[in-house]
């Protein structure tokens, strides 16, 4: 079965089930059924699949299924996954599912998933497999996705929740009394709608063009101009880019290495404040090294990265206990593939710092899979409120 079919499937009947992926962020392009193993095999579209901008990125999937019989048991297999063994086999990420209208809340699937190599190393295809038992009414449609979807409709819901938090949370009220907060909830709506994993509709990884944004990088250009405008009036105090991370667990910051010891201490203090206020924040995985401001995007093998420690909160002068162990670094702030010549100098937190001179410019990375640990800070004085 070819993995380069470009159109999303729409109401495709296979076996006794009907599959669809023709909706916001859906990207499944083919499906068949192996009766011998009772497995439905699916193929997802690459980023910009079927266009001149097609790339090798293939980690996201999102599809819907209906027509189950009572208590039906089946297996699903995504047959052209990318190399995400760290995410699925080590960190034990499980896809999410929900049933409409019976159980509309997204939740992790029960049981385990397994990612196995398909074909040769040159093929770069992996199979992600899981089992499923149906437990809803006959009319329900069950949806599956790699992780919690963030399409346009989902975005509207999250914005409503944000309004509620800003209205009710006393910490948010304290912030609003001193600062104006500007949110850019989505900078890649076309890529998200297509079901792309990393790029926009023209195959561009937008988080490599903040330092030289042009006509092809519309949202990035607008963000840079907005940030520079505020900085020129001495009104820009904090920039935070939000990203998901596939190779590490936990929530942590990537920051910049500042030349002034005083400014760098003030820079890293923000991470320590986050650790006090969030039980999910992992201070030890934060990286404020100069190397992490200019690293070129390329794949790093497990062997070559073993023993290469990341710079810790003090910058390059010291090393943390966190050893780089990812199979590749393409998920660090949206990195690209081996052929890319881009680097982190073009990512948001580095470029905004250099263009505006602000101290507090960060990327907040949150694992797709799980927190590293949960630190209860309830007994720490001042942790329950802003100081």
Overall description:
The protein has 387 residues and is α+β, with helices and mostly antiparallel strands. Among the domains are: 12-145, Immunoglobulin-like (Sandwich); 205-297 and 341-367, 3-Layer(aba) Sandwich (Aminopeptidase), CATH 3.40.630.10. Helix content is 21%, strand content 25%. The chain is built from 8 helices and 16 strands. It has helices spanning 85-90, 152-168, 170-176, 189-194, 218-232, 261-277, 302-305, 348-356, and strands at residues 12-14, 17-20, 28-34, 39-44, 62-66, 73-81, 96-100, 103-108, 114-118, 125-133, 141-145, 239-245, 251-254, 309-312, 315-323, 361-367. Strands 1-2-5-11-7-8 form a 6-stranded antiparallel β-sheet, with no helix packed on it. Strands 3-4-6-10-9 form a 5-stranded mixed β-sheet. Strand 7 (96-100) and strand 8 form a beta hairpin. Helix 2 crosses helix 3. The longest helix has 17 residues, at 152-168. The protein is globular, with a radius of gyration of 22 Å.
Ends distance: 59 Å
CATH third-level topology of the domain at 12-145: Immunoglobulin-like
How would you describe the shape? globular
Low-confidence stretches: 1-6, 299-331, 336-341, 376-387
* Element order: H for helix, E for strand: EEEEEEHEEEEEHHHHEEHHEEHE
User: How many DSSP-defined strands?
Assistant: 16
What structural class do you assign from the helix and strand content?
A: alpha+beta
Which strand order does the major sheet show?
Answer: 1-2-5-11-7-8
Q: Biggest sheet, open or closed, and with what strands and sense?
A: 6 strands, antiparallel
Residue-averaged pLDDT, rounded? Answer: 82
Number of helices: 8
